[in-house]
Every structure is written in C-alpha cells, then in structure tokens.
Design goal:
The protein has a domain of 321 residues: Maltoporin, Chain A. 5% of the residues lie in helices and 52% in strands. It has 5 helices and 25 strands.
C-alpha cells in the first residue's frame, strides 16, 4: 500500500546583492566557521524492557530489536504489520476477521501470551494503532524470560507515548491505495506545574483489495481515543493514569479456497464469505502506575492495568464440494459469536544500585500477576446453504433460524511470578548477569466442566534460571554467552 502524508511547508528566502565594483576594490578577512552535523539514525542507546532496568544496548545479552518513533514516522507506519516489516525475524499472516497475526522465528504469537504493553501482558485482537506508541520492541527467543509464560519465538512489546512538558499539537492526514484514509490528532502539554496531559484521537478506514462476486469491496474502520495523565505528587513521586478506547468494524475474509484437486474457486480476488459476514470489536483499557525515587540509588514502581474487550461477529463458514472450482457452487454455514474478555495485570518492581567491595550491582526484585477470564457465547453448525460465485444468482441473507442452538462457556486462568536479577560489573571489560523467576500458573476447569463434574484444574510451578557473561573488548562492542 502506498501512503502519502499531507503537510504544509513554509520557506523564508533571503538574498543579498553585492556591488561588483565594491567587491573588486575591497578585501575583508572572514573568520572560518566550521559547521558540524550528526546524521540521525535509528539506533537506540538504552533498553529497559528485557531486564526491566535502564541498561545500554551493549549491556543487554539478549536479542532485542527496537523500532523507535523516528523510524515509525519515516516508514509512515499505519499498522503494527507495517512497523514490523523492519524486523527480519517477524512475519505477518492472514486472519479471517482482520486482526494482525505474527510469527517470530517461525513460532506463532498467540493473542494470549505474545504481546506486552509497557511491559505487562496484553490481549491483542484489534489492529494496533501505532500512532499511540513511542517504541515497539521485539524480544526474540528467551529475551522475555522475566515475563513468565510466553511463546518460543519471543514477544512484542508496545510502549505508549507519554505526556510532555512542552505544548505541542500534531495533526496529520494519511491517504493511500484501496481507499485508505487515516486522520490523527495528537496533543500534549502541561496543564499545571505538576500535571501533564496527552490526548490522541484517530480514525482510519481501508477497503479490502479483494471483492465479493458482485464486485463490491468491504472495508474495515478503526477508531481510537486515548488519554494519558502524569501528576507529580512530590519531587520524588509520580502518578500516571491512562485510558484508551478502541473500536474496529470489519468483515470476515477466510481467504482463497481450493478444491481437492488444488483448483481455486473463482480467483484470488474473490471473497467467498457472505457480504453480511461482519465483525465488531471493542476494547477499553484502564491503567495506573506509581513511580517513586526512594533515594539516589533505589526506586520503586507499581502498576495495575485492566482490559475489557468484546468480540462479536456473524460468520459464514465455507465448505466446498469436489466440483466447486468447475461449477462455482459451494455451501456455507451460518454462525454467530459474542465473546468477551477481562484481563487484570499488575506488577511491583524495586530497582537498586550498590557495591560489594569493587563489584557494582544493578539489582531488580519484582512480582507480577495476570488474571484472565474468557466468556464464550456462540452458535456453530446448523443447516448448510448452497450459493454460487455467479453474480447473477441471488445471495442468501443472514438467517439466524438455520443456526445450531447457542452454547457458552467460561475459562479462567491466573499467573503469579516472583523474580530477581543482578547485573554485576567487575570492571570496564567484564560483567555477569544472573537471574531467577518463580512461576505459578493455574488454569481452572471451564464452567461447563464444573457443572458436569468433568475434568480438573491444572496447576504448574516452574523455576526459570538464567545467566549471562559479558565481555567488552572495546567501548563499542560486546561478546556474551547466555544460559537459560
């Protein structure tokens, strides 16, 4: 997709006219002025996600790729998928309901354990609005050990923008192919000496490059409204409050379909799902964080985040016959879902610096929890309806009477973790990182299993050690060995 950003450029041009004769008859000595400039790049010097402490990239014995705000702007990234094109180990795959799904190092990221927001677990079903984020980090492999249960390929951490002291407002309009439009308003500043704010609102729409048999192209709309407030309780203590509301209205596109002989039904641009097969997602996110500088060497932070999300859809599950590619005829089953999710996350971290003899210690002690509840209510199965890709034939409408009876269930799981980590610096060349995490994971029986007396709760306890030895042959390079 090609995007174009509209902007206004004002230039002030000045000129000086010199008399030729005056220049010829006089000589003036002018001091030499040397102008130096540093070419900007996309390298970030520090990272605090992999270890939850401020350390330089050279002190990070993990594979972490950081995509900063400058790169996001230069890429004109309007989606997480566009931003992650800059990471060679990450690949996007197609999802029928329009949400972005990724693989890292060949391993799929699930919506449950694959994503973080400001270092806390985040459930992800809506296309992420990158206009809300300052940084996107890809923690590969075991780089996310501190966060407990995660995918083998790694994690994606999205760090939100924060309020600024300086008054600033940015308004932008993006236009692209497939009738893509995105409008963004981002304003920040100081309301008082102690209170800072940031408001971000955006509206985005885009048509599918594929179409229904009658030639019509469905579209996906996504809206965002976010509020961030920072309040200085004292010189050493700050309270941060966040709220954001996201909505996404889209369509279901299960992709191209092939018969048993590998022949495509229609062509690669034809959507076999019914035009009424749509979906709507809503997400409300609430967050609070307290940061306190105990003294020059020790700090404390505590945060809580609540996510309330709903996912509803009308579906038309496609099923083919042996000759569907030849005749253009196939069947679909009408379905419906109304699912909701409640996710509570919290963490407490203590960071400190101290010496034991000549050894400098940068230590982290912390705990976190995740409480996840999934409510499922859906209708699947029922009568199959025959339809054709021939646009002259009628397209059946949405008929709930042909669906199977509704079924519902509730699923609950909790994760609790304790962790400690110490980065020991012996001298300018040698460092040792040692860490340990204790995990408790419990998954309750579903509500239906409890009612029927089936199944049992699952409980897992894990001990996850890790250690890294770092050698710095010079100030610009690091060689390290890691065990976990």
């Amino acid at each position: 997709m090609n995007n174009f950003k509209l902007s206004t450029l004002a230039c002030l041009v000045t000129s000086a006219v010199f008399s030729v004769s005056a220049v010829a008859n006089s000589v003036t000595d002018i001091d030499t002025t040397v102008v130096k400039a540093k070419r900007p790049n996309y390298k970030t010097n520090t990272t605090n996600t992999a270890f939850k402490m401020d350390v330089s990239q050279l002190e990070t014995p993990r594979s972490v790729n950081t995509i900063d705000r400058k790169l996001l702007d230069d890429l004109q990234a309007t989606s997480l998928a566009k931003a992650l094109e800059n990471d060679a180990s990450t690949v996007k795959t197609h999802e029928s309901d329009g949400h972005e799904n990724f693989y890292i190092r060949g391993f799929e990221l699930t919506t449950n354990e694959g994503y973080l927001r400001n270092g806390e677990q985040k459930y992800s079903l809506i296309q992420e609005p990158v206009e809300m984020y300052e940084l996107i980090e890809i923690l590969k492999g075991g780089s996310g050990l501190l966060y407990g249960q995660s995918e083998a390929g790694g994690l994606i951490n999205m760090i939100t923008k924060t309020p600024e002291d300086r008054q600033r407002t940015m308004i932008s309009q993006d236009i692209g192919s497939d009738n893509f439009y995105r409008s963004v308003v981002d304003t920040t500043g100081a309301a008082t000496d102690k209170l800072r704010y940031r408001f971000i609102a955006s509206k985005q729409t885009k048509e599918n490059w594929r179409h229904y048999p009658d030639g019509k192209q469905p579209k996906t709309d996504r809206d965002l409204f976010a509020v961030m407030l920072d309040y200085d309780i004292s010189d050493d203590t700050m309270l941060a409050l966040t709220y954001d509301h996201k909505t996404q209205q889209g369509h279901n596109d299960s992709g191209a379909h092939f018969d048993e002989n590998g022949n495509i039904v229609g062509d690669r641009e034809t959507i076999l799902d019914m035009p009424w097969s749509d979906n709507e997602k809503k997400e409300d996110s609430y967050g609070i964080k307290l940061s306190h500088e105990i003294n020059d060497d020790w700090s404390l932070s505590a945060s809580y985040h609540y996510l309330d999300m709903a996912n509803s859809a009308r579906t038309s599950s496609v099923s083919l016959s042996k000759d569907s590619a030849t005749t253009g005829n196939y069947k679909f089953g009408t379905g419906k879902r109304d699912n909701s999710y409640e996710v509570h996350t919290a963490s407490v971290d203590v960071n400190g610096n101290f010496y034991t003899g000549s050894i400098d210690h940068n230590i982290l002690i912390g705990a976190n929890l995740v409480n996840h509840v999934y409510h499922r209510n859906s209708n699947w199965g029922g009568k199959k309806i025959e339809v054709s890709i021939n646009p002259t034939k009628p397209t059946p409408g949405y008929d709930p009477s042909v669906m199977a009876p509704a079924s519902g269930n509730d699923y609950r799981r909790q994760t609790y973790g304790l962790y400690v980590q110490d980065l020991m610096t012996f001298n300018d060349q040698w460092q040792l990182l040692a860490g340990l995490r204790l995990d408790h994971y419990s998954k309750e029986r579903s509500s239906n299993d409890k009612k029927d007396g089936k199944g049992h709760d699952k409980i897992y306890n894990n001990v996850i050690p890790n250690a890294s030895l770092l050698f710095h042959p010079n100030q610009d390079s690091t060689i390290y060995a890691t065990y976990s």
